[in-house]
Design goal:
This protein folds into two domains: about 5-280 and about 520-550, Periplasmic binding protein-like II (D-Maltodextrin-Binding Protein, domain 2, 3-Layer(aba) Sandwich), CATH 3.40.190; about 285-510, Dipeptide-binding Protein, Domain 3 (Dipeptide-binding Protein, domain 3, Roll), CATH 3.10.105. Helix content is about 25%, strand content about 20%. The protein is built from 14 helices and 24 strands.
Length: about 550
């Protein structure tokens, strides 16, 4: 899991009869002429398209536009059963790591074939420009890794040498699916945010994107793409925010590929064997869905209260009810996702099961007593909580309703007050004006790393222009150096040990409550062929330039 994290507003994935912790990929060849227009469903619009800026937190925006247009150092692929970073077509070779004058350096050699859509070469100056923008802008989504760069040297147009001030073990996450590589010859001297935020006409990937906010994203082939050329003439992502409506469009043949949330309706559709459909289900995801707690907000500023909430909720029952038919029956026990399981203490949160006796002992020990309504009270205040998630998300609304009863049975009053995605992720979480929230946190790399969302230094403050990604305001001082070590230590055994130790400390403090490894579901028409399946980092759509559409 990368230190760069995206918020999952709508889950990704699909199935079609296959259920596993891996990926089912179709490579059927239909033998018909290529071309045509592929219409795909998208469950959420992009928020903005300046990928460096904090406004670009929507994973769907990256899947529809960023991954299709921004060149990157690494793709993510499965090798010998393990998801790993492999050089993309942009690179001439695997970047090399060395120690020079006691400092870590990474040398990137760019392919001579790699050019932008205007025919200008992708160069080392683009690497330098990208790093400079991330390190000098005031509203960066997450500077992790880039803030450790001392310099970017450009000894030749096709060679960039990055020197780090201190070691950074997760260097493969950089200049890749986090932000990509920016075109210096187009953006230098201009306001990058203004140039990019509402869409852009250039590309360094297989497609050129046109964004009609709130309606669609249209992709057309980049004539100067240097990798496998697209055979599909046009791809249109149609924004269909309601999953049920998206399924109706899929069944009617109005859209030919969808990456729906794993709602009961989606599971029923998979089991219903929709004619002329293929699908895959992947539980080895980069996403952890959790009940995120604002550790700075009363009464959640008390560890005892957070722990009592953990002992009030039957997470296994929730997960089984939602995803049991996909084979996902147990709550996930770490804030590290399944794709980074080797770095996770997968038993860290396992003690948090329904235990009313522990709830009582923790709350009374913290000075609480139940009032006449059976709600915990202390100092003239009650243990009244409000939870917020994206309005209309049926899966998370079901979770809220179950939690409302379970918490009520244990002396907590829970109010549901859902908001639009723009309000929740654009304002509320960053400002800290919430108590509880349910959403998925998704990595943009196979690298581990929770420091960006859980280290004390990353709590949004005036000092970091309110752009810190520790939206839960977590501060566990003993865990901070361990989380930082995960980012910096290149010794794999000690890095794994540090990550697991941090998991245990965070669970003891009950900073938030992991719920499920949000399964990915991908569904597509048999009119499509090629290497189609779920990529837990880059989505099912990442390699559409290799797909074929039959008439």
């Amino acid at each position: 899991m990368s230190a760069i994290l995206a918020i999952v507003l709508a889950a990704c994935g699909s199935s079609g009869g296959s259920k596993s912790g891996g990926t089912k990929t179709s490579t059927t060849t239909l033998g018909k002429a290529p071309g045509g227009t592929l219409v795909a469903g998208a469950e959420q619009d992009a928020s903005c398209t300046d990928w460096i800026n904090a406004c670009a937190s929507s994973l769907w925006g990256s899947e529809m536009i960023q991954y299709q247009t921004m060149p990157r150092t690494f793709d993510i692929a499965k090798q010998d059963g393990v998801w790993t970073a492999v050089p993309s077509p942009t690179m001439a070779s695997m970047p090399t790591v060395a120690t020079v004058n006691g400092k870590q350096t990474v040398t990137y050699t760019i392919s001579d074939k790699a050019v932008w859509s205007d025919g200008q070469p992708i160069t080392s100056e683009d690497y330098k420009y990208t790093a400079d923008q991330i390190n000098t802008d005031k509203n960066v989504y997450d500077p992790t890794g880039y803030d450790k760069i001392e310099s970017v040297a450009t000894p030749s147009p096709k060679v960039a040498v990055v020197t780090f001030k201190e070691p950074f073990a997760s260097w493969t996450q950089m200049f890749s699916s986090d932000y990509g590589i920016q075109p210096s010859h187009i953006l230098e001297g201009k306001n990058r945010h203004n140039e990019m935020k509402n869409g852009y006409s250039w590309s360094g990937g297989p497609w050129i994107a046109k964004w009609q906010k709130g309606l669609s994203v249209t992709l057309t082939p980049n004539p100067n793409w240097y990798g496998t050329k697209p055979t599909i003439q046009k791809v249109i992502f149609k924004i269909i925010a309601d999953t049920a409506a998206e399924f109706q469009a899929f069944k009617a043949g109005e859209v030919l590929a969808i990456y729906p949330q794993p709602l009961p309706s989606a599971i029923a559709a998979i089991k219903g064997n929709i004619p002329n459909t293929k699908s895959s289900v992947n539980a080895e995801t980069a996403t952890v869905e959790a009940l995120w707690m604002n550790n700075a907000k009363f009464p959640l500023d008390s560890t005892a209260v957070r722990q009592a909430i953990g002992y009030s909720i039957d997470r296994d029952a929730i997960v089984k009810a939602l995803f049991g038919e996909l084979g996902v029956n147990k709550a996930w026990q770490s804030l590290n996702p399944p794709i980074s399981a080797k770095y996770a203490d997968t038993t860290a949160w396992s003690d948090y099961t329904p235990q009313p006796g522990k709830v009582t002992s923790l709350m009374t020990g913290d000075g609480w007593k139940k009032n006449g309504s059976g709600v915990w009270a202390k100092g003239g205040k009650t243990a009244s909580l409000t939870v917020v998630t994206t309005a209309g998300n049926k899966q998370r609304e079901l979770i809220e309703q179950v939690m409302q009863k379970q918490l009520g049975d244990n002396g907590f009053k829970l109010t549901i007050a859902n908001k639009s995605a723009d309000d929740l992720f654009g304002t509320i979480l960053g400002a800290g004006t919430y108590q509880l929230s349910i959403y998925g946190s998704s990595g943009t790399s196979v690298n581990p790393g929770l420091c960006s969302i859980l280290c004390t230094a990353n709590i949004p403050t005036k000092a970091n222009d309110q752009t810190g990604n520790n939206l839960s305001r977590v501060s566990v001082p003993a865990a901070d150096p361990l989380l930082e070590q995960v980012d910096t230590d290149s010794n794999e055994p000690t890095r794994i040990a540090a990550s697991k130790q941090a998991d245990a400390l965070l669970a003891d403090d009950q900073v938030s409550l992991p719920l499920d490894p949000l399964p990915n579901i991908a569904m597509w028409s048999t009119r499509l062929s090629g290497p189609i399946g779920d990529n837990p980092i880059l989505s099912m759509f990442w390699n559409m330039h290799e797909w074929t559409l039959a008439g």
